[in-house]
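Researcher: We're teaching a course module on how sequence relates to structure. For the next exercise, students receive a sequence and then see the predicted structure as tokens, so they can try to spot secondary structure elements on their own. Here is the exercise chain.
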Amino acid sequence: MTAFEKLRKSSEEIIAICKKEQHTKEDKDQLLNIHQQILTAIEDLVECEGCNRIVTQIAAITLDGESAKLCKDCGIKSLEAGKLVKKKTSQSRTQRSKKSQKKGHESLLDKPETPANTGKIESSASKIPAPETEKPVPKTEKSVPEPPKENENPKPDLNELYGEVEAQTGINKRDVKKIHKLIEEIAYPMDLENTIIYIVAELEKARMKIERPNAEKAVSMLFKR
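Model: And here is the predicted structure for the students to work with:
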């Protein structure tokens, strides 16, 4: 069964559940399971580098020292032509991007210099008339606050974080690192609830003997760290 067939089947199962007049906890668990199946099927979809289509099967072909991941049709065309089928839109997109960057740069150069865009601070002392006295008036310099340093808020030490997760969940530090790696490898952004569902399903798939409550707590502690 291809990824698209799995997605179609999952959609039909969701529609069947939604048509029920009343729903139970079993329905919710079934929907969560279908959600995981949909995510897995989407991950199996790949883009052809020749025609930009999304397909379920791809082949890596190398001709004249160049390599590309192509679908069946583009692969056959490349082998018949003796050269790889390349994207037609990549060059035009690059040219449009360069023109846009150049236009934005020129618009900045055309602006007149002002304290706002030059970064210069106009001292308010120049606007105050000189006092009518012969005594020299000490000059006061305005202190400009320094920009915040990049490392002012360093990330927490991961070993310390892993140790804290291990202490609160009972999961050994090696498995905690694996859970954190799974979270970081998620290709598209998800909120905490969906991240927990995804990671718990991955742990069950890998047959890691971690109780669900402990796994959920670990994901909550490692989320966006």
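Model: If you want an answer key for the exercise: The radius of gyration is 30 Å. The longest strand covers residues 59-63.
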